[in-house]
Known about the structure:
By secondary structure, the chain is an alpha/beta fold. 27% of the residues lie in helices and 23% in strands. The strands form 14 sheets. Strands 5-28-17-22-16-6-9-10 form an 8-stranded mixed sheet, with helices on both faces. Helix 2 (88-107) packs antiparallel against helix 9 (190-203). The longest helix is centred in the first third of the chain and has 20 residues, at 88-107. The protein is globular. The two termini are 28 Å apart.
Amino acid sequence: MKSVLMKGSRLGGHRGRSRKVGWSSSRTGRGLERGPPRHASAGRPRLPVDRSCHEGVSCRAAIDRSSSSTSSRNVQGRRGGGLSDLKESDAALRDDVLRMKDLVLCLKGRDARSKVAILGKDPVVRSCAPLGYEDHIAALSLDRQVVLYSMLAARQDHVLRTGSVEDSDLLSSLLGKLELVEQFYDSIGGIVGYQLKVLQLILGDDEAGDGDSEEEVLFPPGQDISDGTDPATVAMVEEGLRAIPDLAEVYPVGGAGDRLGLIDEATGQPLPTALLPYCGRSLLENLVRDVQARESLYYRIYGERHCTPIAIMTSDAKGNHEHIVQLCEENGWFGRSKDSFRLFRQPLVPVLSGEDGKWLVTGVFEILMKPSGHGAIWKLMYDRDVLRWFGGRDRGSALVRQISNPMAATDTTMIALAGKGHAGGHVFGFASCERKVGASEGCNVLKSYEGSAGDSPREAAITCVEYTEFQRYGLQDTGKVNSDGEEVSRYPANTNILYFDVKRVQAKLEEGAKLGQRGTPIILPGMIFNRNKTIRYTNRLTGEQEEVKGGRLECSMQNLADVFRHELGGGGVHEPTWLPTFLLYNKRPKVTSSAKKRYEPSSEKGSISQTPEGSFYDLMRNAGELLAKCGMAPPALNTVSEYLKEGPSFIFLFHPALGPLWSVISQKVRGGSLAEKSELVLEIAEVSIRGVDLAGSLLVRAENVLGEVTGSSSGPEGNIRYSDKCGKCTLRDVRVKNKGVDFAETENIYWKHEVRRLESCQILLQGNSEFVAEGVTLRGDQSFVVPDGHRMVVRAGEGGEIVQECEPLEVGGWIWEYELCKDKGVVLK
């Protein structure tokens, strides 16, 4: 096994003051002044005041600053420079930052009534002109009043002036959505804290950081598993297979998927990424099939059935949650029990202008809102007891993958990740690969920190830096040439394929929750605000299409790794150094090739990166490598331009339970050839294919791929039951010749696997059945359907004609025997 480690190298790294996003614990004592608060003047919104809730202590946020010159002195004193160096708008934003810091401190730990009273003393709230529906506001619940006055304190009164009392239902809807934001961001001060954090990030305020400890960014140590046959990788895979009963899975699927532009053809409504029909089925179903493939392999080896609990984070973007539930129900929860899934929603948050932090208005009492970033998953899993749910199902570790990346489970990637984490006693792990220079993806790094105490040893963690944060960390996105002559980034890519220890993450989140604001880097890791993203939306008040630079406050789930640091003693990080966090390195097509944006031929010279077209191209790249490993000579992969013009040079698709390890597949499929523009589809797990020469299209499909299906999948026993009662196919010395796929058909959509066939050979195995063909040539259109409980044998007659015989299946029939052999992996007999 190769070690991906460059000792002592910086590679464009940064050494200096930490500027991570988070709350600074050194500031928690600031913000109290003495003196009587002013009261709201006549004609302004009159607020209920709880005069007993903070008697004797008044917030500076509740006291008007005496003059703009005082504000100027505050800014100058904090920044070390005069206002001549600042834009006037920046000075105003800095004043708001000071005010809202104090306001957040005053609101901390208060009940709703007290919060309303405190917000009512805020000078910005008191200075607001009447909204025109004060009587309606007074009738709102206290929680809703907190939301409304927090909006005023955050200078978002323009949102509240888009309607009137006649639009009370719309106002109620808006406040309901924002109430979820207030609750979710309670640890940083709710809506006011959300706005404060955004303004700090807009201004590049050092105090938005997490502390002042010295921080060094280096190339991360890791283990290269791209050679799947070396002993260390084989051992990791063995441990990963043994860990399957201990594993859970987590899918963040709540993203809006705006760049994909997926539309329901029947209704014209936008759809979430999870519903993208990739290779004939939704992306979500593809992920579940990967889980079932690993469970099936475990059953084949150990004879034990396990059902991996799956937690799915949804959102309300584009009806995401309802669509996900409907997809699961329509597919009978993919042959699994409904209670093996746990769905929980992430909140939608306001989208803001990157210039002044104003929320973007889209209609009457309506703002543009987007999901809060995948980093919200940790707080949500803590708040909704998802991690305890895992523990209740005896799951001690979990794998995380994103919905838009169908490659994550290719071959050894996720199994080795689980094995390394589980056997090595790690808390957090990354599956990584090469990163393209300029790609919109983060990179994995090693961060070395000054010890928490002044003279304590340095600490280190393998973690991630998002691409939007490169400049802040002083990272140069420069390249090097890899072994294939391609320019790639000097740092490996963060792919958001993660491993984590459930109990230790739960304990860390509990610690963060107890710390309050100081625990924000734990409970809401890696907060960023990408202010340079182009936002396009329709303002229904004007009927105009708007375009601004802006974004929303997001959290990065991979940055939870930042808090799992390890003391280094007197030395640095070397290859044998154990860290709570770890990294595995593999070939990029076997780790990630996402389908997250629409292919636009006119943009960036028609790049297919991160498009369904590009993902399918990489899928066929992997398929060609696998076929070569099987000794079934595939055609050369055509160029991207040829692929876009005339389709792939071949198609090879298979159910992941055929392996999922390539070492297993290469024992089931051996020899033969695949002619150019041929199609081989194996929707089956138990096959023995030897010396098959294919020129055309061969489709083998088993109704029962994994075993018998018991009852209705919506009922208490509605599960796939892993067993030997499945479809089986034996092909030996068979030639298949037909016209196959019509690659001249312009309506073919290869990544959907929607293609027109001129001719094909199709084999359908119903229930528990078996198909056998030996020494025969199957020409032209052929269709073989094997009934449940039968074996069909196809052979050549004396005159070369095809002879088929169908008879009842003997008890059991043939089946592969799987054995996990030390240092050899899975061996089939």
